[in-house]
Design goal:
- The chain is globular.
- 32% of the residues are buried.
- The model has no long low-confidence stretch (mean pLDDT 96).
- The chain is mainly beta.
- Strands 2, 4, 5, 6, 9, 10 and 11 form a seven-stranded mixed sheet that branches. Strands 1-3-8-7 form a four-stranded antiparallel sheet, with no helix packed on it.
- The chain has strands spanning 2-7, 10-13, 18-26, 33-39, 46-52, 58-60, 68-73, 78-83, 92-99, 108-109, 113-118.
- It is built from no helices and eleven strands.
């Protein structure tokens, strides 16, 4: 199993920045990809960004392209989500999740961290 723990959430004014961290532990050697998701109040969970654990390939949702950057530090088993130019609509609980392959769903999830952006 893989354990994931998010940190770095908080409150920020619109236009500000936050950096979220996702620390992975356990059987990380079988990890293919780590993704960030978010769930805003009253909305469905949505994909934000993902990064491959080995090669570092990234993918972003259109709503965050150019503002958010996902990166990883394999030595620390940590994935980061740098969020710039934050908007009130970015307010949500942010979760990181991992999966073992491109055809496998995200299996392991963190507990989430709250991000609140004020206007």
């Amino acid at each position: 199993q893989v354990q994931l723990a998010e940190s770095g959430g908080g409150m920020v004014q619109g236009g500000g920045s936050l950096r979220l961290s996702c620390a992975a532990s356990g059987r990380t050697d079988s990890t293919y990809q780590i993704g960030w998701f978010r769930r805003a109040p009253g909305k469905e969970r949505e994909f934000v960004a993902a990064i491959s654990w080995s090669g570092g390939a990234t993918i972003y949702a259109d709503s965050v392209k150019g503002r958010f950057t996902i990166s990883r530090d394999n030595a620390k088993n940590t994935v980061y989500l740098q969020m710039n130019s934050l908007k009130p609509e970015d307010t949500a609980v942010y979760y990181c999740a991992s999966r073992r392959g491109i055809l496998v769903g995200y299996e392991y999830w963190g507990q989430g961290t709250q991000v609140t952006v004020s206007s």
